[in-house]
Amino acid sequence: MSKPMIINLPYPTTDGIKNDALSLQIISPAYSTSVGELNAVLQYVYHSFCFYKHGLKDCAETLMSIAKAEMIHLDILGKTIFALGAAPVFAQYPSTGFNFYSTKYVAYSNTLRHMLEDDLIGERRAIADYKKMLRCLKNKQVAAIVSRIIDDENLHVAAIEEILKEFKS
Predict the structure, then answer these.
(1) pLDDT under 70 in the chain at which residues?
(2) Is 13 exposed, middle or buried (0-12, 13-18, 19+ CB in 10 A)?
(3) DSSP letter at 13?
């Protein structure tokens, strides 16, 4: 069974984080939107199953390892959202409970290569979105959590690029 694909550094704690509506608004889209961690988990699990079905067990395991890392990110963001003062419901803005997540956001591509390309686009967008969050966050503890997640996302980009190289050759 695969382990989560994460770098070997601890995640910052949410201990001591206080209610903070601004930080909550900034990080909430990373939790459960079309570009959030919940969507990433579901998409990687689906893509892993597709690779496994085609006999590409190593690729399937890599994608499942990334899914497990994204689940860790979902857990951390959920705990952070709670600490910031909202229930972590699967909605764009948990504090309001509106714009609930939908599985229609999962990329159900027709070919394995397109799945990898969709995953790579998703990772790059996540990194860009997280970096944008960092520019807006004033809460240093929440910013440290986001920065640590970015480190894992960069690892995922490298892994997907490596698999894509194999597909192109």
Answers:
(1) 95-97
(2) middle
(3) P
